[in-house]
Amino acid sequence: MDNFTPVSALAGGVLIGLASVWLLAANGRIAGVSGILHGLFAQPPGERVWRAAFIAGLIVAGVAWHLFVDVTPRQGFGLGWAALAGALVGFGTRVGGGCTSGHGVCGLGRLSVRSLVAVTVFMAAGMAATFVMRHVL
Amino acid sequence: MISAFGAGVLFGLGLWLSGMANPRKVLDFLDITGNWDPSLLLVMGGAVMVTLVAFRPLIRRRGLVFEKTRIDAPLILGAALFGIGWGIGGYCPGPALTALSNLTAEVFVFVAAMIGGGVFARIVSPRGTGA
Predict the structure, then answer these.
(1) Looking at the domain assignment, is residue A126 inside a domain?
(2) Is residue B28 in some structural domain?
(3) What own/partner pairs with CB < 8 Å and gap ≥ 24 does A75-81 have?
(4) pTM for the complete prediction?
(5) What is the pLDDT of residues A67-119, one digit of tens each?
(6) How many domains in chain B?
(7) B130 lies in a domain?
(8) B66, B88, B123: best to mutate for the A interface, most A CBs within 10 A
(9) Which of A84, A127, B32, B93 is the most buried (most CB within 10 A)?
(10) Residue A1 within a domain
(11) What is the pLDDT of residues B31-84, one digit of tens each?
(12) Mutate to test the interface with A, among B29, B51, B65, B71 (most CBs of A within 10 A)
C-alpha cells in the first residue's frame, strides 16, 4: 500500500462532490457523466447545451491540470483493449443507467438502493476483470 | 450553461487531484490481490460525504422524482458490463473524458468506443435505458 494517497484522494473526492451539488443546485441535474454523455448522442436531441458545457468543462479541467502538473500518461496500453473497454463501459452504463458518478457519487448520496446495488456489482466486476487482466492473462 | 461548464471544470479538477484520471491508479485500486491502493475508497467517500449532506434537501426543493427504483436485470447486467470494461481499461466515463487532454491514442479510442457502445445500446434496447 505504498501507493496510498489519502489526502489528495479525499480532497479530490470532496471537489467531485461539490461539483455534483453545484450542478444539482444550479441546473437541477444529476452529475452522472455517462448519462450526460449518452444524452448528447441520443435521439431526440433534448437539451444538448448544458451537457456539452459540462463535458467541455471536464476537458478544460484536464488541459488546465496539464499546465500546472507534470502528467505522465500511460504508454503501451493496447488499442484493441482500449476499444473493448470503452465499448463495454459505453454499453454497460447505458443499459445500467449510470456509472461511478451517477450511481456512485450521486446515487449513494441520495441513499438509492438501486444505485447501491449497481455500485456493488460494478466494483466486484471491475475487481474481477482487473484480476484476470493482471494475474491470469 | 455557465454553471454546467463550471461544475464540469470543478468535477474534472477533482478527478485529477484525486488520482481517478490516472488509469494505473484506478487499476491499483481494483487489483485487491496485488499491491492494493485503497485511495479510491476515499475519493468515493469524500464525494459521497458531500452529496449525502446536500442532495436530499436540494432534491426536495427542486421537486425531482426518480422513477426508477426497481432492481432489475438491465441494472445488474449493465453494471456488470460497465465494471468489466472499467477493470480492463481503468477508465470510467468522467476520467476518460478529462483524460482526453493527455492526447494519447488509447484515450481517444476508448472515448470513441464508449460513445459507440452507448449508441449501440440505444439501438438494441431503445426503451428502459436512460440515465
Answers:
(1) yes
(2) yes
(3) A75/B104, A77/B23, A77/B89, A77/B106, A79/B105, A79/B106, A79/B109, A81/B88, A81/B89
(4) 0.95
(5) 999 999 999 999 999 999 999 999 999 999 999 999 999 999 999 999 999 99
(6) 1
(7) no
(8) B88
(9) B93
(10) no
(11) 999 999 999 999 999 999 999 999 999 999 988 988 888 999 999 999 999 999
(12) B51
B51 touches A110 (CB < 8 A): yes
Query: How does residue B131 score in pLDDT terms, banded at 50, 70 and 90?
Result: very low
* For chain A, the helix, strand and coil percentages under 3-state DSSP, each to the nearest 5: 75, 0, 25
Identify the band that residue B129 occupies on the pLDDT scale cut at 50, 70 and 90: very low
ipTM, two decimals, is 0.96
The answer, for B18 touching chain A at a CB cutoff of 8 Å, is yes
The count of domains in chain A is 1
What is the pLDDT at residue A43? Answer: 67
- Strands (E) across B1-131 are located at none
Beta carbons of A60 and B8 less than 8 Å apart: yes
Chain B from 60 to 79: CB within 8 A of any A CB: 62, 64, 66, 68-71, 74-79
Report CA B117 to chain centroid distance, whole Å: 15
- Which position has the grid cell 467517500? B45
Please, what sign has the CA dihedral across residues B19, B22, B24, B30? positive
Domain that holds residue B92: 2-124
CB contact under 8 A, B75 and A118: yes
Residue A29 domain flag = yes
Domain holding A15, by residue range, is 6-136
Structural domain contains residue B131:
no
